[in-house]
Amino acid sequence: xxxxxxxxxxxxxxxxxxxxxxxxxxxxxxxxxxxxxxxxxxxxxxxxxxxxxxxxxxxxxxxxxxxxxxxxxxxxxxxxxxxxxxxxxxxxxxxxxxxxxxxxxxxxxxxxxxxxxxxxxxxxxxxxxxxxxxxxxxxxxxxxxxxxxxxxxxxxxxxxxxxxxxxxxxxxxxxxxxxxxxxxxxxxxxxxxxxxxxxxxxxxxxxxxxxxxxxxxxxxxxxxxxxxxxxxxxxxxxxxxxxxxxxxxxxxxxxxxxxxx
Amino acid sequence: xxxxxxxxxxxxxxxxxxxxxxxxxxxxxxxxxxxxxxxxxxxxxxxxxxxxxxxxxxxxxxxxxxxxxxxxxxxxxxxxxxxxxxxxxxxxxxxxxxxxxxxxxxxxxxxxxxxxxxxxxxxxxxxxxxxxxxxxxxxxxxxxxxxxxxxxxxxxxxxxxxxxxxxxxxxxxxxxxxxxxxxxxxxxxxxxxxxxxxxxxxxxxxxxxxxxxxxxxxxxxxxxxxxxxxxxxxxxxxxxxxxxxxxxxxxxxxxxxxxxxxxxxxxxxxxxxxxxxxxxxxxxxxxxxxxxxxxxxxxxxxxxxxxxxxxxxxxxxxxxxxxxxxxxxxxxxxxxxxxxxxxxxxxxxxxxx
Lengths: 261, 353
Known about the structure:
The complex is a heterodimer.
Chain A (H helix, E strand, L loop, with lengths): L2 E10 L2 E11 L4 E5 L6 H9 L6 E6 L2 E2 L5 H7 E4 L11 H6 L9 H14 L15 H16 L8 E6 L7 H15 L4 E6 L3 H7 L2 E6 L2 E6 L1 H4 L2 H8 L4 E4 L6 E4 L4
Parallel strand pairs in A: 3-8, 3-9, 6-7, 7-8
Antiparallel strand pairs in A: 1-2, 1-4, 4-5, 9-10, 11-12
Helix pairs in contact in A: 4-5
Chain B lengths: L2 H25 L7 H13 L8 H38 L12 H23 L4 H23 L1 E2 L2 E2 L1 H25 L2 H11 L8 H19 L2 H7 L3 H6 L4 H23 L5 H13 L3 H25 L8 H19 L7
Antiparallel strand pairs in B: 1-2
């Protein structure tokens, strides 16, 4: 019962973008994908989402190949937030969030409750009647987060569910970043949800991840707990800059700092 | 303002506008028919099919009303409704507020298909016997529209996604090619066919008899109703095709069905009324400014506003220079063109991302 990549590979125009990726997104865990630019993080998310068809291997959900899933049923089990969510048409924020209810039969009362709830979670309830096109970048990102949140928040139906996020915090300020990552952490803790997110901020990754997936040049370098993956050698080799690991005041986590030249 | 109140006000306003447009269309024309007379004639025609009870004067008026004005009004409404809804669907499907059956070569493709049939096919069909031209002309227009739509759609795809800029340019190219093809047909056509083609390319709501209308209009209406059911899908499409897929929609199938429905309904509309541009562009854009982009509201509102707009344009075309009639396509282009320029000046568009 999990979202599994088996020997996954993807190439386009004779160029490998990903090869030999094996990983498992488990319910109850927050998995974070890290790696330098162009290492294949977005391709991996798209493959796990079924948006790209793998040229090698396969992705399975509950042991069934993603391409054999009925798209409506799949949408009740996993939601995907792309790196660049675009919407150039005037749509009310409330209606954008409500699009997350698309996979479910219409139920006005339930729809409204779940949409309101998600808007509160992501601090966008005051924007409810604004047009999406008038929002700032960070506000838009929060609206889309609320949308994918709604998609998985129906109390009835089959669990566990999976949330796939490509750089979900890129436009968020510090407060919203922290609130969002805590919310993710809290939501996986019940074991009914598995989350995989691409993050660039290594300190946040260390602080919140249950499992890290480190990619470089289309290959999986390391996967496992923070302790196993986030070693000074791994980071320096792959990012090609010297780093210092500073102790975080609580627990054994680290703040990763780049010293002066 | 509360969205629900906005919607009520909008639909009440649109319905009143529609009633008004139908009323002035019934009442204006070369034969003077008053409101009371019109209602009497309609009640009478409905009640019994023999006209013996009416005076001579009233019989003429009945003929004018039932055989000329009513089919014209019905055609204007169905044409406006079809073009406006098709335009809204295209804009949603391509995520571009400039997509329109007219601009993107669909109407031109329909026109070419129909002209091809009118100039060359009619003779060929006459030698074959067989299919009645009541069906063959709309079919030719539909096929022309379908081919041009597919071409635009496939030329506009780059890799896995639809590239809007390429697609619009492809639409312009298809438009030019189809128009050139139609011109070539006009060049080789004999006088009678030429007059028919030219007249009909300018848009003409006045020459469709009831029998053809009653065959074609229900199919048009059915495809428009089918498009209305795709409102939630089109909303999801606005986020992008990948996102619509993630939300559980079968993107490829919906896209194929919608394109087929647009080609079918626009093809049939062109076969009956000729080429009338700008309705599909102007109507959804105007409405989006008022109610936003939610297709559940936008599509039905477009249907009514489209009908109103073409009814009013037809009324103007008949009364402006009466007794001379301005082809409605020309009138629509003369009013739609400046509106289009106004759109360009007041709205910021992004063609690439």
